[in-house]
């Protein structure tokens, strides 16, 4: 792979990048104590919890440890709660309900992520068309209760897909509409 | 313009198909009754008067002309359809079929992916069905085996649910009203006038699970059509809901009531217990019970209608909240032409909004369209007892519900905010949620399409909310099923 400063061989760019990333992180620890971020999964979790959705998903591709840490629901919980508001005190009750419905990671993947993307695209298009100052990024246009409602409907539809007589195709996901293109007319 | 009942139809549209778009006679500026609702769609009438005088770009001019031609063709088509409807009302089938034939020809000129094109297809199909009713031997929806018909209807309903924000708006708003009304109650009994696949309830179950103070004990009574022998659709839905409730630890029980019509359901079938907070939920059901006789502007005649029996039943249960969502349209008029025109403009707006909600590419889900097509067919072709889609505007519902002893409960800022957030997730800037007198309406470019409101029995005797019943704990859920056929 070459030294740390050399550019990676272009054979398989993603793989090379990932390995280099790992190497760089290892070397960031310096030669003094040889600290490796992978030594402490909880600190890694704290760091990952501050990433946005896409970065978090990318981080999960780094190595098995990162994948395992990125899979922790607490990490996704932090991400979800950051993006919805006004944030209610999300206590253990909320955690239990979300876990029962499939977990924060799934909530983000199916509901919050697409919804935020969609709102972001709509806001961008609006900005483009009307030349206004773009709204503040953290203006909350989605509430936790609304996303949980949509999520629960999706969970319910999946419950039904397993038991329905396979006469008709499985019912569409209630959250598919979030993936449709935004009409910005 | 003379409306309804006259010997001459209000539109004398030249039937010469060779007319150039530009040479169309000036359009009437006030379109009957639809002026109040939906002019926004046909404001194009004014634009025709003034063609752009100086255009810098020839291509742009060409495109503009093509658009204008299309719009003119669309408007001509609309007027042909209305002339046909006028002829039907005047009892002149020959003229009606002539206009209809012209309309079919004009349909070819209008792009099928435009809003008016698609709606016009359905309306002209409905008109021809009315003029030339199909012979009874091929299976029509009325003679289809009920199992097939019900399954088809369920499928179309589900597709319609996914395709646009309307049913979601209905469910979420009704849920919010119910949630707020049963705040603090430990035993809640919800009666759903039309269970279908129960898509409304997972969100409410989840919200109740998370409410401060813990979830109440929830009972759901779902009303629906009887299932064919060997199947129990109501119970299946109940089982699914029970599974969901169990996973979020809400004590839940379900009972299904099978009935073909809502007025067959008697209060004793619903088994309301002492001390429980009753919430009744009706999404797009009440309009089917309205007067069988079409000349119902006279309240005395309307009193005999099934709707009053049902409203009495509801009021007798003293519900904490009666959530009502209905189409915001006036499709129950006596005169056929009035009704036809209203429906034409209403469904144009709905199709437009569906188009925007599905991304604006003209790719409206076929099943969602089919769902609406059934309504259109019913409004246009059905008469008397056969017509079930008798939509009425909110002000008439207010009167009816008021007469039955129900008082309005304002929906509140939370409901409005949630509805706006939900609708904001759907594409198309055109959808809007407005609040008026405590009711929410979902509209498309200012034209209200659906209205949601909440009601309760007047002089509510406030029983103590704590229930002395020792209810079983934990997440166990039991469901019992009683089927009552007429």
UniProtKB/TrEMBL annotation, chain A:
Residue stretches spanning the membrane: none
SUPFAM superfamilies cross-referenced by the UniProt entry: F-box domain
GO biological process: gibberellic acid mediated signaling pathway; regulation of gibberellic acid mediated signaling pathway
Domain F-box as annotated: residue spans: 42-82
InterPro entries: F-box-like_dom_sf, F-box_dom, SNE/GID2
A GO CC annotation given for this chain: SCF ubiquitin ligase complex
Name the UniProt record assigns to this protein: F-box domain-containing protein
Organism name: Digitaria exilis
TrEMBL record, chain B:
Compositional bias (Low complexity): 464-486
Keyword entries, A-Z: Transcription, Transcription regulation
Phosphoprotein as UniProt keyword: no
Record region (SAW): 381-456
Motif (VHIID): 188-192
Leucine repeat II (LRII) as annotated region, ranges: 236-268
Positions of region (VHIID): 157-222
Domain of life: Eukaryota
Positions of region (Disordered): 458-486
Pfam families attached to this UniProt entry: GRAS
Family named by the database record: Belongs to the GRAS family.
Name of this chain's protein: DELLA protein DWARF8
Species in which this protein is naturally found: Digitaria exilis
Taxonomic placement: Eukaryota, Viridiplantae, Streptophyta, Embryophyta, Tracheophyta
């Amino acid at each position: 792979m070459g030294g740390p400063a050399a550019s990676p061989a272009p054979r398989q760019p993603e793989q090379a990048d990932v390995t280099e990333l790992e190497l760089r992180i290892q070397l960031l620890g310096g030669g003094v104590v040889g600290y490796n971020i992978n030594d402490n999964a909880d600190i890694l979790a704290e760091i990952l919890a501050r990433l946005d959705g896409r970065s978090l998903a990318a981080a999960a591709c780094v190595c098995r440890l990162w994948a395992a840490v990125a899979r922790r629901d607490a990490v996704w919980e932090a991400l979800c709660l950051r993006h919805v508001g006004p944030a209610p005190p999300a206590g253990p009750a909320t955690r239990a309900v979300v876990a029962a419905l499939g977990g924060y990671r799934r909530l983000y993947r199916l509901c919050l992520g697409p919804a935020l993307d969609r709102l972001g695209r709509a806001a961008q298009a609006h900005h483009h068309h009307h030349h206004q100052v773009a709204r503040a990024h953290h203006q909350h246009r989605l509430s936790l209760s609304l996303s949980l409602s949509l999520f629960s409907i999706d969970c319910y539809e999946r419950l039904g897909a397993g038991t329905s007589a396979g006469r008709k195709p499985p019912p569409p996901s209630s959250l598919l509409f979030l993936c449709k293109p935004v009409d910005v007319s | 313009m003379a409306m309804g009942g006259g010997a001459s139809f209000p539109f004398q549209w030249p039937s010469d198909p060779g007319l150039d778009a530009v040479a169309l006679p000036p359009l009437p500026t006030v379109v009957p009754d639809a002026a109040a609702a939906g002019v926004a769609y046909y404001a194009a009438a004014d634009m025709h008067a003034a063609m752009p005088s100086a255009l810098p770009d020839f291509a742009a001019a060409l495109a503009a002309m093509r658009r204008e031609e299309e719009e003119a063709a669309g408007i001509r088509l609309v007027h042909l359809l209305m002339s046909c409807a006028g002829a039907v009302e005047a009892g002149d089938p020959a003229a009606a079929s002539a206009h209809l034939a012209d309309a079919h020809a004009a349909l070819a000129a209008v792009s099928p992916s435009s809003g008016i094109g698609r709606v016009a297809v359905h309306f002209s199909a409905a008109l021809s069905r009315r003029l030339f009713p199909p012979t009874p031997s091929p299976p029509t929806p009325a003679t289809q085996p009920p199992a097939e018909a019900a399954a088809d209807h369920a499928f179309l309903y589900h597709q319609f649910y996914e395709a646009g924000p309307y049913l979601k708006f209905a469910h979420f708003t009704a849920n919010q009203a119910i949630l707020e009304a049963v705040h603090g109650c430990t035993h809640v009994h919800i009666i759903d006038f039309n269970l279908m696949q129960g898509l409304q309830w997972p969100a409410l179950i989840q919200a109740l699970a998370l409410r401060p103070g813990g979830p109440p004990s929830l009972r759901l009574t779902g009303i629906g059509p009887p299932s064919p022998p060997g199947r129990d659709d109501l119970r299946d839905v109940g089982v699914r809901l029970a599974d969901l409730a169990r996973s979020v630890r809400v004590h839940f029980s379900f009972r299904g009531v099978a009935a073909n019509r809502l007025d067959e359901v008697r209060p004793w079938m619903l088994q309301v217990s002492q001390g429980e907070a009753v919430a009744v939920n009706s999404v797009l059901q009440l309009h089917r019970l309205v007067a069988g006789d079409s000349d119902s502007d006279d309240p005395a005649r309307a009193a005999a209608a099934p709707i009053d029996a049902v409203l009495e039943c509801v009021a007798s249960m003293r519900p904490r909240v009666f959530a009502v969502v209905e189409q915001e349209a006036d499709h129950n008029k006596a005169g056929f032409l009035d009704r036809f025109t209203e429906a034409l403009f209403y469904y144009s707006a709905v199709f437009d909004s569906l188009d925007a909600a599905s991304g604006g590419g003209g790719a409206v889900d076929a099943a969602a369209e089919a769902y609406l097509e059934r309504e259109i067919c019913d409004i246009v072709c059905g008469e008397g007892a056969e017509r079930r889609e008798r939509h009425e505007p909110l002000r008439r519902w207010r009167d009816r519900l008021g007469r039955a002893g129900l008082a309005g409960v304002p929906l509140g800022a939370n409901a409005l905010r949630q509805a706006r957030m939900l609708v904001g997730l759907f594409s198309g800037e055109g959808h809007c949620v407005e609040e008026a007198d405590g009711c929410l309406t979902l509209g498309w470019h200012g034209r209200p399409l659906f209205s949601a409101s909440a009601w309760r029995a007047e002089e509510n005797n406030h029983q103590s909310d704590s229930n002395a019943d020792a209810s079983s704990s934990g997440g166990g859920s039991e469901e019992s099923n009683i089927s009552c056929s007429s």
